[in-house]
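FAQ

Q: What does a record look like?
A: Structure on top, sequence underneath. For example:
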């Protein structure tokens, strides 16, 4: 079944792409969650028309790529997203989001697959590398701020990330208990050792222990 993706779906495709998927996967997962819509002829034609319009605003030569890179080098993208107290996003900012924002603010089309960043999952200041044409790359300033708030300073961001890592790490006592438990599991008990000893050796060991008041 052919569908048009409405959002990026891992291992399936990017928003705006027409992809073929199993009918059950589409009916039971993609469509109910509004991650995709059925690729009817009318919708595909509209998508192709939109892409054709945007394609006229994409670098077609090295010189055009340099001009676009100069423009993007002066651009600062800003995303306001929901985030937790330690700066972790409830979701992420994807390369598709970045490409869409460049189109919205600059009317420049860039290939989402040439945006050199993974999904951004924390608030912060980023320099996102984008290849606008062969041998033409530009770093685009990208700010990811908490919704309805200001972006903290770099020092505060570093402290927030450190707090998150500390909260995620298991306590040292738990590590020690775990190591002790593992150590105990590795040390055989006296009964286990005894089972491995021949009868004559077991008798000698038992007599020695009695003499030393160990049993």
């Amino acid at each position: 079944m052919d569908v048009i993706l409405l959002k990026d779906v891992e291992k399936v495709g990017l928003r705006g792409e027409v992809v073929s998927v199993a009918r059950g996967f589409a009916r039971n997962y993609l469509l109910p969650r509004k991650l995709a819509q059925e690729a009817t002829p009318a919708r595909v034609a509209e998508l192709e028309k939109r892409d054709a319009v945007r394609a006229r605003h994409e670098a077609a030569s090295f010189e055009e790529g340099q001009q676009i890179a100069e423009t993007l080098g002066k651009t600062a993208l800003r995303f306001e997203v929901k985030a937790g107290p330690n700066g972790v996003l409830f979701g992420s900012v994807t390369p598709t989001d970045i490409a869409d924002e460049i189109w919205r603010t600059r009317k420049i089309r860039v290939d989402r697959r040439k945006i050199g960043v993974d999904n951004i999952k924390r608030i912060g200041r980023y320099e996102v590398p984008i290849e606008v044409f062969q041998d033409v790359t530009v770093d685009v300033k990208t700010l990811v701020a908490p919704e309805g708030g200001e972006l903290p300073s770099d020092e505060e961001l570093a402290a927030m990330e450190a707090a998150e890592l500390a909260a995620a790490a298991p306590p040292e006592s738990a590590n020690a208990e775990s190591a002790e438990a593992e150590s105990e599991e590795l040390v055989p008990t006296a009964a286990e050792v005894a089972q491995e000893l021949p009868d004559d050796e077991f008798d000698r060991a038992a007599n020695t222990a009695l003499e030393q008041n160990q049993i």
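Q: Is there anything notable about this one?
A: The mean pLDDT is 83.
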